[in-house]
Amino acid sequence: MTSECFMLAANGWVPNNSQLPVIVYRAVERGDCDEIARAFERRFGRHGWPPDWRDTVYDYHHYHSTAHEALGVAAGHAVLELGGPRGRRMDVSAGNALVLPAGTGHRRIHSTEDFLVVGAYPAGQEWDICCTAP
């Protein structure tokens, strides 16, 4: 497993987070889609981030102002844009995980048809969605 972290500055209407970095973990889990999804759900839950959904990432810019978000890629691959319009583009694939601090803009630019993500939020944090009109 490898990891990287970076800060994102405010970008127009997207605040990002001036105190906490985005963290990206590569090759965290291995297996088929269901094995990886279950492994991320267990891992997130053990750390106090109950898994909340299995789906894709919205294809429009948005952020959550009230909650941090963990994303575990269970299948496929995609290009995500982090930080809002003209932000940082990042390739992600099955087995990768991201931790997005509250306020971090994100969207899916394109993905394979099988792209599947597990989403989780810290216990006690209720997520909202802030965006421009999709």
Keywords summarizing the entry:
three-stranded antiparallel β-sheet, 11 strands, 134 residues, mainly beta, Jelly Rolls
Query: How many strands, which pairing sense, and closed or not: the largest β-sheet?
Result: 6 strands, antiparallel
Order of helices and strands: EEHEEEEEEEEE
| Rough outline | globular
Please estimate the helix content.
10-25%
Uncertain segments are none
Mean pLDDT: 96
| Termini gap | 35 Å
For the biggest β-sheet, the strand order reads 1-2-8-5-10-3
Number of strands: 11
How many H/I helical runs?
Answer: 1
Provide the CATH top-level class: Mainly Beta
Indicate the proportion of strand residues: 35-45%
Per CATH, which architecture?
A: Sandwich
* CATH topology title: Jelly Rolls
Q: For this structure, what is the CATH homologous superfamily? A: Jelly Rolls
Instruction: Supply the number of structural domains.
Output: 1
- Decide which structural class fits the backbone: mainly beta
